[in-house]
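User: quick one, fold this
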Amino acid sequence: MFLELITETLDDPLFYILFFLTMWAYFVFQESSTLRSTVGKQAVNIIVTDLNGNRISFTQATKRFILKIFAVIPFFSGFLLILFTSKKAGLSRYRCKDRSVYSRGLS
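Assistant:
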């Protein structure tokens, strides 16, 4: 019975819409908050800032989230930029003008 429920749920487009919205809310609301990071980033002392070290806006966080999806789709090619650029930055950093930094010692 439980297995049938799961299989039926995965066939429903509403499941994928809710999944996308949940993921969007998780990343965007946390990265644009005053904490400037998700729970996982907080665990390893990483924060997301703009290029001046300030908190990113809600719009920047949304762009960052969407660009992460586009970076994954063609065989993670958006993340392969990290290997070939001098700043070791992926697609989202160049388009959203943000960065993730190690926050130890920052207030």
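User: anything notable?
Assistant: The mean pLDDT is 79.
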